[in-house]
C-alpha cells in the first residue's frame, strides 16, 4: 500500500524495525526536550501528515519498551487518524510512573499501524439473537 506523506520533521520517514513488524515507529519532532512529570501528559508533534486511503485508518499505539521501562503510554490508546484528516500527527503521551521522563527530539515515541475498517449501516431491531453469554458483562464468564 502506498500512502502519500508530508515530512516536515528533520527525521527520516518511519520504518519497520523488523521484517514482520506490524507498526512503524513515530519519532518526536521537538525544538527542545519535553519533561513529563508523574501523571503529566503532553501532545508531542511528529512533523508528519498522511493521506490515509478511504476504508482505512491509522492507529497510534504505545511502544511496549517505553511502557515497560519508563511507564510511558498514550492517553487515547489507540488513537485513530481518519482518512479525511490532513493535519500533523501528534502523539498524546502520558507518564504513568513516579519519575519524570524526558522526551527528546528524534526519540521513538509511538507506533503507527494502518488497518482496514468497515463502515456500518444501523439495522434497527426489537431483539437480538440469543447467545450463551447473553447480556453478561464485566466478569460474567467467571474466568480470570
UniProtKB/TrEMBL annotation:
<keyword id="KW-0378">Hydrolase</keyword>
<keyword id="KW-0460">Magnesium</keyword>
<comment type="similarity">
    <text>Belongs to the dUTPase family.</text>
</comment>
<protein>
    <recommendedName>
        <fullName>Deoxyuridine 5'-triphosphate nucleotidohydrolase</fullName>
        <ecNumber>3.6.1.23</ecNumber>
    </recommendedName>
</protein>
<dbReference type="Pfam" id="PF00692">
    <property type="entry name" value="dUTPase"/>
</dbReference>
<dbReference type="GO" id="GO:0006226">
    <property type="term" value="P:dUMP biosynthetic process"/>
</dbReference>
<feature type="binding site">
    <location>
        <position position="76"/>
    </location>
    <ligand>
        <name>substrate</name>
    </ligand>
</feature>
<feature type="binding site">
    <location>
        <begin position="80"/>
        <end position="82"/>
    </location>
    <ligand>
        <name>substrate</name>
    </ligand>
</feature>
<dbReference type="GO" id="GO:0000287">
    <property type="term" value="F:magnesium ion binding"/>
</dbReference>
<keyword id="KW-0546">Nucleotide metabolism</keyword>
<dbReference type="InterPro" id="IPR036157">
    <property type="entry name" value="dUTPase-like_sf"/>
</dbReference>
<dbReference type="GO" id="GO:0046081">
    <property type="term" value="P:dUTP catabolic process"/>
</dbReference>
<comment type="function">
    <text>This enzyme is involved in nucleotide metabolism: it produces dUMP, the immediate precursor of thymidine nucleotides and it decreases the intracellular concentration of dUTP so that uracil cannot be incorporated into DNA.</text>
</comment>
<dbReference type="GO" id="GO:0004170">
    <property type="term" value="F:dUTP diphosphatase activity"/>
</dbReference>
<keyword id="KW-0479">Metal-binding</keyword>
<comment type="pathway">
    <text>Pyrimidine metabolism; dUMP biosynthesis; dUMP from dCTP (dUTP route): step 2/2.</text>
</comment>
<feature type="binding site">
    <location>
        <begin position="63"/>
        <end position="65"/>
    </location>
    <ligand>
        <name>substrate</name>
    </ligand>
</feature>
<dbReference type="InterPro" id="IPR033704">
    <property type="entry name" value="dUTPase_trimeric"/>
</dbReference>
<dbReference type="InterPro" id="IPR029054">
    <property type="entry name" value="dUTPase-like"/>
</dbReference>
<dbReference type="InterPro" id="IPR008181">
    <property type="entry name" value="dUTPase"/>
</dbReference>
<feature type="domain" description="dUTPase-like">
    <location>
        <begin position="12"/>
        <end position="142"/>
    </location>
</feature>
